[in-house]
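Tokens in:
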């Protein structure tokens, strides 16, 4: 379907917004009046710029406080409308948005509203323009789409129809099924926005908290289904007022926006995309570093052994059980510390996973290959992390480990079972919602509820995305102090059958565990039925404890190396969380450790 985006949804100047929308693959735009007024280009030049970019101008907006007003006020509105229609002809826009009135001059008189809108539509028709009437959720007298349609129907003018806005409909709890009673040709425009479910003034909710489809709590797929069932054939357009989006880079925001529309069409049965291929596990985590010694010392203490080296690149494979970590010392590594640069995802069908990612606008990463390299497909996540779709030891599929040569005399790894339980990735503050949607749509993971975690210097927001069976768990977070990479760093959680034994072995090998305040364990004794011996052990090793209806979770943390640290976890099979209740203690302890360095 034809896709469009309101310029108010993006940051920057009008020309920057147009360029971003075109690069992201949109077919058209809604031009917000304030963007045009602030632009130095004449309407004809804006029209030509859009044409050069391959964009249609699908809507000009808004006109306000037009209907159900005294005659003298309406006369002034008609004069203003004539000027706008002349401008729209210069601009090449043929549909104008008229919002239901919020003016104190407006009266509760549907007949007057219908008559005045009919006169406005007659004037618009002289210019070849259609009027799309929208019910604002906070309109003075008209605040539902059903009421707006009754007025449009009573007006009976061919140049007058309705504009349906998902936020105004769903924020009031209106039933979208009634949309099917509106003839499709009288639905002149459809504006889409999601939003988190909040209990607050609807105007403030709309102006600051809208988001792209799939990032909030509205059933947009259901609404779109009803709109299409009514026979609507016009654009799917995003109109999103969001404080973060209006400060973020317009290019990445536009890509996120277009991806959300593709996913919405798929969910509503209006488009067919390559099916999602849910990853079946984590093949490896790759650390990029300019100084390998600190991280290899940490891996050695964790019981990893250097098992293989890449045949053509300065990359070593470290392994313990099913957990694999690549250490990359390529020349492009940053000098400010080790970071988690890439994740290898076990994919049932790597080629199909790559097709899905590309269809959903994930940046496909070029890969320098030498003869004999395994064909690995990789895309970039919103935070820049490289995601590889790969297979490990499966017949008929190239094994990424073929790129590595085994090292002789590799010491035997500890016998205890170890695998990657989850990965935690810190997101740039303006990419958090985008990252959640990306991992859901591209990878087919399921998003859990977002949680706020108390940090000594503010709040940290976290949301996990997981496969149904828990074989892939990724916790996405945004930190309270984004400049402090050593605290709000990425981390790799290693699952073990016995966290106490693993922590003791790590410390005995020279590893340093995060020190947890004694007050935490004193409180733990009051909250949980643990033996004195257990508490003494947990206190000694800095082990944290949590429990939910499915079981217990025991975990502890290593020191931070660069911008990465490790977590040792013992998860009961039924436990679904990540120890969120302990996060404030962990964050405070990491801040304290940073100050002591």
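Residues out:
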């Amino acid at each position: 379907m034809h896709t469009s985006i309101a310029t108010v949804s993006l940051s920057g100047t009008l020309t920057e917004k147009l360029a971003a929308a075109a690069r992201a693959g949109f077919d058209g735009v809604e031009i917000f009046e304030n963007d045009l007024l602030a632009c130095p280009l004449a309407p004809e030049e804006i029209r030509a710029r859009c044409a050069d970019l391959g964009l249609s101008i699908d809507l000009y907006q808004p006109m306000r406080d037009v209907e159900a007003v005294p005659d003298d006020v309406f006369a002034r509105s008609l004069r203003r409308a004539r000027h706008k229609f002349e401008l729209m002809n210069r601009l090449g826009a043929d549909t104008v948005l008229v919002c239901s009135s919020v003016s104190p001059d407006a009266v509760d008189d549907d007949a007057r509203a219908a008559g005045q809108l009919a006169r406005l539509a007659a004037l618009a028709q002289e210019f070849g323009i259609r009027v799309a009437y929208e019910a604002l959720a906070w309109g003075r007298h008209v605040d539902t789409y059903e009421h707006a349609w009754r007025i449009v129907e009573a007006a009976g003018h061919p140049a007058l129809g309705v504009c349906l806005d998902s936020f105004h409909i769903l924020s009031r709890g209106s039933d979208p099924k009634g949309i099917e009673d509106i003839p499709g040709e009288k639905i002149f425009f459809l504006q889409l926005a999601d939003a988190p479910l909040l209990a607050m003034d609807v105007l403030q909710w709309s102006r600051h908290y809208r988001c792209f489809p799939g990032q909030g709590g509205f059933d947009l797929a259901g609404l779109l289904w009803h709109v299409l069932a009514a026979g609507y054939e016009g654009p799917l357009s995003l109109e999103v007022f969001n404080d973060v989006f209006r400060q973020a880079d317009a290019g990445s925001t536009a890509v996120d926006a277009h991806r959300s529309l593709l996913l919405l069409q798929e969910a509503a049965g209006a488009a067919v995309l390559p099916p999602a291929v849910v990853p079946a596990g984590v093949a490896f985590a790759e650390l990029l570093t300019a100084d390998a010694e600190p991280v290899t010392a940490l891996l050695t203490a964790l019981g990893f052994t250097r098992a293989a080296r890449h045949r053509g690149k300065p990359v070593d494979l470290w392994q313990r059980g099913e957990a694999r970590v690549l250490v990359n010392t390529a020349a492009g590594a940053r000098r400010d510390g080790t970071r988690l640069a890439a994740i290898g995802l076990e994919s049932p069908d790597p080629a199909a996973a790559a097709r899905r990612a590309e269809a959903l606008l994930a940046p496909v990463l070029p890969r320098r290959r030498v003869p004999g390299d395994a064909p690995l497909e990789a895309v970039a996540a919103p935070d820049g992390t490289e995601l590889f779709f790969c297979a490990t030891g499966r017949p008929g599929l190239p094994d990424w480990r073929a790129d590595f040569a085994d090292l002789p005399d590799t010491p035997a790894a500890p016998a205890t079972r170890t695998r990657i339980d989850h990965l935690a990735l810190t997101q740039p503050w303006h990419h958090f919602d985008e990252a959640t949607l990306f991992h859901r749509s591209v990878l087919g993971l399921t998003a859990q509820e977002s949680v706020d975690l108390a940090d000594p210097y503010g709040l940290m927001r976290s949301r996990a995305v997981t496969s149904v069976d828990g074989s892939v768990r990724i916790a996405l977070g945004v930190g309270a102090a984004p400049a402090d990479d050593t605290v709000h760093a990425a981390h790799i959680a290693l699952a073990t059958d016995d966290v106490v034994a693993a922590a003791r072995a790590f410390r005995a090998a020279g590893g340093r565990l995060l020190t947890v305040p004694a007050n935490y364990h004193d409180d733990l004794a009051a909250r949980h039925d643990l033996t004195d011996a257990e508490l003494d052990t947990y206190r000694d090793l800095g082990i944290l404890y949590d429990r939910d209806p499915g079981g217990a979770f025991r975990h502890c943390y290593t020191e931070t190396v660069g911008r990465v640290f490790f977590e040792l976890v013992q998860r009961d099979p039924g436990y679904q969380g990540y120890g969120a209740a302990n996060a404030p203690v962990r964050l405070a302890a990491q801040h304290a450790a940073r100050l002591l360095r």
